Amino acid sequence: MAGVAEVEVVVAHHDCATLRVGDVFLKIDADQARTDVEVEAMAMAPIPTPEVLWRKPPVLALAALPGTALGRLGEPSTASPAAWAAAGAAVRMLHDAPLPPWPGRSPGEFAAQLDGECEWLIVNGVLSDLARLTLGHEEHLADVIAGYGTDVDLDVIRAWWSLRSLLAIRWLVEHGFDPARPGCEVDVLRARL
């Protein structure tokens, strides 16, 4: 097709996928209730969120936000400490905003999932917002915290790095990705030892 940008698979699961075509993200989700919640949450956010270009279930088309990525997992970040601090300040605005009206997952659900992922790692021998923002870029945690402000439990952030890495490793291995690449999930876990 002439004039069509490259199609990039951002993420793909058995029930949803996100594709990027130029400056448009196409989110395909079999669960329309999940998409409804996502659109409502973006509308409530006190920071810029992607513009909904159109929606024709099961597809949601979102415009890419302007700007430059802070970093990519497995690659060194070239973003300045000020950019990381600004990201921390944006997360703080989200955290200070009223909670959405729907419930989230309970700590017990996270614990059960973590137990299952740990068991899978052992059997197969394969070995949070501020946390997600700094995953794989621990060297910028202080910059993000400077922008976010006080009242940050660094142990909780480091625990979330471990949880996120543990939960992702199985999926990555099963789908042909290498979580042991430098700076990726296995390195994040090793850094916690």
Describe the protein in words:
This protein is an alpha+beta fold and 193 residues long. It has 2 domains: 7-63, Phosphorylase Kinase, domain 1, CATH 3.30.200; 81-191, no CATH class. Helices cover 46% and strands 15% of the residues. It has 7 helices and 5 strands, in the order βββαββαααααα. It has a 5-stranded antiparallel beta sheet. The model has no long low-confidence stretch (mean pLDDT 86).
List keywords for this structure.
193 residues, Phosphorylase Kinase, domain 1, 5-stranded antiparallel beta sheet, 5 strands, alpha+beta
Give a topology summary.
Blueprint: E1 7-12, E2 16-21, E3 24-29, H1 32-44, E4 52-56, E5 59-63, H2 81-96, H3 107-124, H4 129-134, H5 141-148, H6 154-174, H7 185-191
Antiparallel strand pairs: 1-2, 2-3, 3-5, 4-5
Helix pairs in contact: 2-5, 3-6, 6-7
Explain briefly what this protein structure is:
By secondary structure, this protein is α+β, with helices and mostly antiparallel strands. It contains seven helices and five strands; from the N terminus they run βββαββαααααα.
Helix tally? 7
Task: Measure the end-to-end span.
Answer: 50 Å
- The average pLDDT is 86
| DSSP, total strands | 5
- Based on secondary structure, the structural category is alpha+beta
Q: What coarse outline follows from CA principal-axis ratios? A: globular
Task: Round the Cα radius of gyration to an integer and report it.
Answer: 18 Å
Reading the helices and strands in chain order gives EEEHEEHHHHHH
Q: Roughly what percent helix? A: 40-55%
Strand percent estimate: 5-15%
**Low-pLDDT runs:** none
Overall tally of structural domains = 2
**Spatial order of the strands forming the largest sheet:** 1-2-3-5-4
Task: Describe the largest sheet.
Answer: 5 strands, antiparallel
